[in-house]
């Protein structure tokens, strides 16, 4: 089974990389890009029966830094 | 003073930090990240700069979960001292021993130059060799030195006089110009600038020496 973890900087935490991407899109002529937030996706191959609670624990302990990042878990 | 300097794969300031401790008169032991215990009788643990584990996942995140860091956390919880510089600061925030987190520099560039630091608190074992308000010149070399804390936590840091150093000209976007903070018990300091790179006349500056001397005096007196 698989799980997918999305890690993003929290709202309110400045994302300078997202801002740089937004500027670059503007330079390429894409108008109307009002905001870009850049995050990461972590795919986990898990033994059958691994619970979402366990993946959440992985996020809390390692995959995300909850001081500045939020995360979302998708199972299966 | 007995100091231990932790070496992670990718550390590159471990030797510099050890030399700075030694020049102040400390006995230094290098400790490997896979070691599960610090040597007996260690007064202070140095967590050096570099790119531990290639900065994979997040700067300091993998190192903070290495076996030796469990011992480091126990050492700090027993009231032991620790100094984290640059990647070491990132590691200390990832362990939770220090508040906040280090984000990508606001200007996105890796910055390597000497900056002015104001001593914001001389009331720590690390900084009492300076006077509050002194400006010292210390090199920075980082890509992720943009310090973040919540407003509540910032207020707490200010109330408790835990901001050790601020930048005179903020290079990286850090909240409140913060360059270094201490733990609640004032015995753990994390800072992005490198005092160990301003510790010898050959470095082009010696403003960092007072920190290592102050630590030495602290333990000599104890």
Automatic annotation (TrEMBL), chain A:
Keywords, sorted A to Z: ATP-binding, Cytoplasm, Ligase, Nucleotide-binding, Purine biosynthesis
Domain of life: Bacteria
Reactions this protein catalyses: N(2)-formyl-N(1)-(5-phospho-beta-D-ribosyl)glycinamide + L-glutamine + ATP + H2O = 2-formamido-N(1)-(5-O-phospho-beta-D-ribosyl)acetamidine + L-glutamate + ADP + phosphate + H(+)
GO molecular function list: ATP binding; phosphoribosylformylglycinamidine synthase activity
Keyword Nucleotide-binding: yes
Gene Ontology cellular component terms for the protein in this record: cytoplasm
InterPro entries: PurS (IPR003850), PurS-like_sf (IPR036604)
EC number: 6.3.5.3
Ligase found in the keyword field: yes
Known pathway: Purine metabolism; IMP biosynthesis via de novo pathway; 5-amino-1-(5-phospho-D-ribosyl)imidazole from N(2)-formyl-N(1)-(5-phospho-D-ribosyl)glycinamide: step 1/2
Subunit (UniProt): Part of the FGAM synthase complex composed of 1 PurL, 1 PurQ and 2 PurS subunits.
Chain's role: Part of the phosphoribosylformylglycinamidine synthase complex involved in the purines biosynthetic pathway. Catalyzes the ATP-dependent conversion of formylglycinamide ribonucleotide (FGAR) and glutamine to yield formylglycinamidine ribonucleotide (FGAM) and glutamate. The FGAM synthase complex is composed of three subunits. PurQ produces an ammonia molecule by converting glutamine to glutamate. PurL transfers the ammonia molecule to FGAR to form FGAM in an ATP-dependent manner.
Alphabetized PANTHER family for the sequence: PHOSPHORIBOSYLFORMYLGLYCINAMIDINE SYNTHASE SUBUNIT PURS (PTHR34696)
Protein name listed in UniProt: Phosphoribosylformylglycinamidine synthase subunit PurS
Organism name: Shimia marina
Automatic annotation (TrEMBL), chain B:
One Pfam assignment: GATase_5
SUPFAM superfamilies: Class I glutamine amidotransferase-like
Catalytic activity: L-glutamine + H2O = L-glutamate + NH4(+); N(2)-formyl-N(1)-(5-phospho-beta-D-ribosyl)glycinamide + L-glutamine + ATP + H2O = 2-formamido-N(1)-(5-O-phospho-beta-D-ribosyl)acetamidine + L-glutamate + ADP + phosphate + H(+)
Keyword Ribonucleoprotein: no
InterPro entries recorded: Class_I_gatase-like, PRibForGlyAmidine_synth_PurQ
The entry's keywords: ATP-binding, Cytoplasm, Glutamine amidotransferase, Hydrolase, Ligase, Nucleotide-binding, Purine biosynthesis
GO biological process: 'de novo' IMP biosynthetic process
Localization, UniProt: Cytoplasm
Pathway info: Purine metabolism; IMP biosynthesis via de novo pathway; 5-amino-1-(5-phospho-D-ribosyl)imidazole from N(2)-formyl-N(1)-(5-phospho-D-ribosyl)glycinamide: step 1/2
PANTHER family: PHOSPHORIBOSYLFORMYLGLYCINAMIDINE SYNTHASE SUBUNIT PURQ
Function: Part of the phosphoribosylformylglycinamidine synthase complex involved in the purines biosynthetic pathway. Catalyzes the ATP-dependent conversion of formylglycinamide ribonucleotide (FGAR) and glutamine to yield formylglycinamidine ribonucleotide (FGAM) and glutamate. The FGAM synthase complex is composed of three subunits. PurQ produces an ammonia molecule by converting glutamine to glutamate. PurL transfers the ammonia molecule to FGAR to form FGAM in an ATP-dependent manner.
UniProt name for this protein: Phosphoribosylformylglycinamidine synthase subunit PurQ
Name of the gene: purQ
